[in-house]
Design brief:
Length: 137
């Protein structure tokens, strides 16, 4: 048998030796290519993971900013709605108060009307009882 990497003319021919050397060189080149390919794949994987981490952080920050903005706008809307409710309650109390005052005024006017109607009726009767005056309607 021939030891790898040597040429012995006794056991193999030159062509066999050259073929063996070429095959060994091709195998070494294939191993080197495989190692280079593995290194490249590992490098791409590291860069991909680093970029993915950057993108993940950017998305988390973006959603965090968006959440903050949504919370801020929601707070503004809640304050606006609270102000609206407060103003509506104040207006409702004022309208109820005004309505109560108007009802009181209407009742007073009705009482005055009834008093005046009674007074007018008394005056008619007094005029009707006076001799020589025509009846007033």
């Amino acid at each position: 048998m021939v030891e790898p990497g040597t040429y012995r003319s006794g056991d193999e021919t030159y062509d066999q030796w050259a073929a063996r050397k070429k095959s060994e060189a091709d195998a070494d080149a294939a191993k080197a290519r495989d190692a280079t390919t593995e290194q490249r794949i590992a490098s791409v994987e590291r860069r991909f993971k680093a970029r993915l981490e950057e993108i993940t952080q950017a998305v988390e920050l973006a959603f965090g900013d968006l959440r903050g903005e949504v919370d801020e706008r929601l707070g503004e809307q809640q304050r606006d709605f609270s102000d609206f409710l407060r103003d509506a309650r104040v207006m409702l109390r004022r309208l109820r108060s005004e309505t109560s005052e108007r009802r009181t005024q209407i009742a007073a006017v009705q009482r005055d009307y009834e008093k005046l109607a009674l007074e007018v009726e008394k005056l008619r009767q007094e005029l009707a009882e006076r001799p020589g005056l025509r009846s007033v309607k």
